[in-house]
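#lab-general

N.A. 3:47 PM
ok so I finally got the sequence cleaned up, no stray characters, all 139 residues accounted for. can someone with queue access submit it? mine expired

B.Y. 3:52 PM
send it over

N.A. 3:53 PM
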Amino acid sequence: MKALVTADARINIQFFDLDPMNIVWHGNYAKYFEIGRCALLSKIDYDYAAMQASGYAWPVIDMHIRYYRSLVLGQQAKITAGVTEWENRLKVSYVISDIETGKKITTGHTVHVALDMRNKEMLWETPPILREKLSPYLR
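B.Y. 4:20 PM
back already:
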């Protein structure tokens, strides 16, 4: 993944995330992406509390997931999340890999747009606050 900035998070696969076939249910990968995205947003000092204070929300408007292998009970995985686009929209790309083997499990991305919380209008340009938070990595 070629990203401006990345952050990692670790997960341990729990029983409640499994489907009847004893593999992680596909819908839980969105939750794992969120875990990685939270680590990334914290790294750039723009977590959900900071977003709210800035007056913007960044809803997901598109998500893509590609599955290579299944995650199973007790497996330790690393989620790497990175900012891969920040002009006019925010695109966060993800790689989920097995901690023990390093093998790629899943890749994907989410696309977000800024939403002005005062009027609930979607913005077509990145607000200055995101550029400010990313500025240390733009050098």
